[in-house]
TrEMBL record, chain A:
InterPro entries: ATP_synth_F1_esu_mt, ATP_synth_F1_esu_sf_mt. Gene3D superfamilies: ATP synthase, F1 complex, epsilon subunit superfamily, mitochondrial. This is ATP synthase subunit epsilon, mitochondrial. Belongs to the eukaryotic ATPase epsilon family. GO terms for cellular component: mitochondrial inner membrane; proton-transporting ATP synthase complex. GO terms for biological process: proton motive force-driven mitochondrial ATP synthesis. It comes from Dovyalis caffra.
Automatic annotation (TrEMBL), chain B:
Its main location: mitochondrion. The keyword Disulfide bond does not apply. It is found in: Mitochondrion inner membrane. The lineage of its organism: Eukaryota, Viridiplantae, Streptophyta, Embryophyta, Tracheophyta. The keyword Ligase does not apply. Keywords: Hydrogen ion transport, Ion transport, Membrane, Mitochondrion, Mitochondrion inner membrane, Transit peptide, Transport. This is ATP synthase F1 complex delta/epsilon subunit N-terminal domain-containing protein. GO terms for cellular component: mitochondrial inner membrane; proton-transporting ATP synthase complex. One of its GO terms (molecular function) is proton-transporting ATP synthase activity, rotational mechanism. HAMAP family: ATP_synth_epsil_bac. Belongs to the ATPase epsilon chain family. It holds the Pfam family ATP-synt_DE_N. It comes from Dovyalis caffra.
Length: 70, 198
């Protein structure tokens, strides 16, 4: 059975739909006029701490953040 | 004995099977669960199931309704919630699509473009980045997008700059992924441009 539909170019380049959608949304946000632009960009900021587990033990946590840390 | 079997079979096959597009109204109470509960614990009230918390789906009306009910949502807001409108045009990936009341059930992926909501004489236009639109048989349209902005919040000089930047990136891109990203940039900015000028 051949593929059901033409594969979109970003899918064949290895990008997932979520990445594509978030990229488009970011591009639109960057083209907004001033007060809306800062609001939109600050709304999307994330701040989280990630720690990988090896052999049942958490490794040192890594903080990923869009806001500058002291 | 075997005559009864054939009668039974025949009765079942000649019964009209409902189409999946003719949806009945959804139930709010899970009746089989409630009956089973009452058998086991007749004095206790049955707990609520998720079904009772949801708003019931409206039945498919037999005549075409005059208005379309639209739910246009973004991750941080309900832009349009259950508003009755005459028509919505959405930027489907196959092209600009107009949705009137009584539209056939459809699920489409949206591409970056302009979406407009028409009610009487007023038209509200939004630029949507990408998402999906679900149109149900009972004339309810759900449009879910990652980012939407009214056209007057878009800055045309930034759009031009972005377009020039991405066209340049597209010509200088080396890996497939870079090319794809640059292509996406060009697509989004050119639809933004078209939205502002068109």
């Amino acid at each position: 059975m051949a593929s059901n539909a033409a594969v979109p170019f970003w899918r064949s380049a290895g990008m997932t739909y979520i990445t594509y959608s978030n990229l488009c949304a970011n591009l639109v946000r960057q083209c907004l006029k001033e007060p809306y632009k800062t609001e939109a960009l600050s709304r999307e900021k994330v701040h989280f701490s990630l720690s990988k587990f090896v052999d049942g033990n958490p490794q040192k946590p890594v903080i990923r953040s869009d806001s500058p840390t002291e | 004995m075997f005559r009864r079997v054939t009668v039974g079979l025949l009765a079942r096959t000649t019964e009209a099977r409902p189409f999946s597009t003719d949806l009945q109204a959804a139930q709010t109470v899970d009746s089989t669960f409630v009956e089973a509960w009452k058998k086991v614990g007749p004095n206790l009230d049955p707990p609520k199931t998720p079904l009772s918390f949801m708003r019931p789906r409206l039945p498919t009306p037999s005549a075409i309704p005059s208005k379309l009910s639209v739910n246009f949502v973004i991750p941080y807001a309900y832009e349009v919630s259950g508003k009755e409108v005459d028509m919505v045009t959405i930027p489907a990936s196959t092209g600009q699509m107009g949705v009137l009341p009584g539209h056939v059930s459809t699920i489409t992926e949206l591409k970056p473009g302009v979406q407009s909501v028409h009610e009487g004489n007023e038209v509200t236009k939004y630029f949507v980045s990408s998402g999906f639109a679900f149109i149900h048989a009972n004339s309810i349209a759900d449009i879910v997008v990652a980012e939407a902005a009214p056209l007057d919040q878009i800055d045309s000089s930034l759009v031009q700059k972005g377009l020039a930047e991405f066209t340049q990136k597209l010509s200088s891109a080396s890996t497939d992924l870079e090319k794809a990203e640059a292509q996406i940039g060009v697509d989004v900015h050119s639809s933004l441009n078209a939205a502002l000028t068109g």
